[in-house]
Amino acid sequence: xxxxxxxxxxxxxxxxxxxxxxxxxxxxxxxxxxxxxxxxxxxxxxxxxxxxxxxxxxxxxxxxxxxxxxxxxxxxxxxxxxxxxxxxxxxxxxxxxxxxxxxxxxxxxxxxxxxxxx
Length: 118
Description:
The chain is mostly helical. It has helices spanning 18-38, 45-67, 73-80, 90-98. It has four helices and no strands.
């Protein structure tokens, strides 16, 4: 009887690197801080609103480039377009949600006999 080839499970989808996760988190905090400072500019809608909206669209594109598409980015973009809601740190919250558990050093599995390698 011929031997069947062993099945190999498909490789797990690798998430973003630690460097990308940290860059996305830093950018999110920075952008939320800038928007908090610029929030009084919304009182002059002809100037402030287009600048902040353009910033949100650019940040959304960068976040997708850094972390890949995630549904958490969609409500964030919508929330950033709402008056007074855009003051909340929504980019920071979205990025922390998307990257939860990522960017950590890989866990070391115990070797044979329950001992840690090294």
